[in-house]
């Protein structure tokens, strides 16, 4: 189990309690094989807390750097697992909005999507969305720069990037400062060379600049499931059973040896809904590479009033 609390210094402030309560509510609705599960919470306690699955393992970037790209059925299982996690969130009305390598942990039991710090209800309008301008350059969808309402298509866009990184050890939009990454994203200048042919069509569709041209997370799941289910069933049961069979048969070579609980816990506290509302980090990109899921530096930038719009950092406060 992992237990997360609001920092005692912030527990008396209504905005932090409200943000923490929203995060708990989001976690409680997430019910996928590939999402961390909420077990208990008390948002009215003197120091609000929640308890959820402790996910041991390396994040995606650290795993491929240490062991190389995923291949064959292992890669397809990763693609299906992350798509299933997104489909579960979207079916529950949740837009994650920060899908990136640091927020996907490769655990011994399969890939797990973590960190609901800037997740919101699908359709939340930007005018009432406290975290509308938060995201990670190179992983945030192009429409996030134009102020649209929260939409699952942005998570699907990031899924295309995850599969590219898993298959090639390269992010689809490369490296560079936040402005250059934003330009490549808006222009659709991605590189998916090395993604296997059987997955490339889905990945390229997911990375479309036009969100209407992207598949839904449910369509990704249907496309990635084994073609024939033994009992002929369809729907959620077939998805669950199919993914579990693929995890059992093909998920190999993943353990928790590279896991650092201290860094993992610190990262979850740093990028949290309960941290929203504190002053935004200013002054352009803070770094390149790394990921919040491991506590490393992240290329966050402040949104500015003139084009091109930027995405702002979630400040490390509140948890």
Layout of SSEs?
Layout: E1 2-5, H1 14-29, E2 38-42, E3 49-52, E4 58-59, H2 60-67, H3 72-91, E5 94-95, E6 104-107, E7 110-113, E8 120-121, H4 152-168, H5 178-187, H6 197-206, H7 217-224, H8 236-250, H9 261-270
Antiparallel strand pairs: 1-3, 2-3, 4-6, 5-8, 6-7
Q: Can you write the helix and strand succession as a string?
A: EHEEEHHEEEEHHHHHH
CATH superfamily: Transferase(Phosphotransferase) domain 1
User: Which fold does the CATH topology refer to?
Assistant: Transferase(Phosphotransferase), domain 1
Structural class designation: mainly alpha
What portion of residues is helical? 25-40%
List keywords for this structure.
3-stranded antiparallel β-sheet, about 35% helix, disordered C terminus, about 325 residues, Transferase(Phosphotransferase), domain 1
